[in-house]
Amino acid sequence: MRLDYYILLLNGPLSLSRRGHLMIKSELVQKLAEDNPHLFTRDIERIVATVFDEISTALANGDRVELRGFGAFSVKHREARIGRNPRTGEAVAIEEKWTPFFKAGKEMRERLNKPQNENVISIKSQG
């Protein structure tokens, strides 16, 4: 699973002229390790992997995963249809499939629409 959503979270609102940095899982782990020096990096890696595995498993089971303040992951059913090969224009049968879907939460949408300098993020443990 790519972490495209962290682009939005860490870099603020996107425009057509600015894409932002693509954060990969190892960079997320590194950032969390920097912000939580009392934790071992290997433990953070295990936690991050477990979170993503649990989300993936829930989606594979058809469940919805809701993270308050962040957003909700779910799956959507796409019916079989006839598409077109863009190069040749030939009709192509596209099979039905399930696709992952993410809907940003209210707080996330509000954060993304604030001016850039207000989008400072700090990932700290609560407690």
From TrEMBL:
According to the UniProt record, one GO cellular component term is:
chromosome
Q: Name one GO molecular function term.
A: DNA binding
Superkingdom field: Bacteria
Any coiled-coil ranges, and where? none
GO biological process per UniProt? DNA recombination; regulation of DNA-templated transcription; regulation of translation
Which terms are listed as keywords in the entry? Answer: DNA recombination, DNA-binding, Transcription, Transcription regulation, Translation regulation
- Where is the secretion signal located? none
Q: Which ranges does the record mark as transmembrane?
A: none
Report whether Ribosomal protein shows up as a keyword of the record. Answer: no
Q: What does this protein do?
A: This protein is one of the two subunits of integration host factor, a specific DNA-binding protein that functions in genetic recombination as well as in transcriptional and translational control.
Q: How does it assemble?
A: Heterodimer of an alpha and a beta chain.
Family, according to the entry, reads as follows: Belongs to the bacterial histone-like protein family.
The record's annotation in NCBIfam families points to: hip (TIGR00988), PRK00199.1 (NF001222)
Q: What is this protein called?
A: Integration host factor subunit beta
- Which organism is this entry from? Aquisalinus luteolus
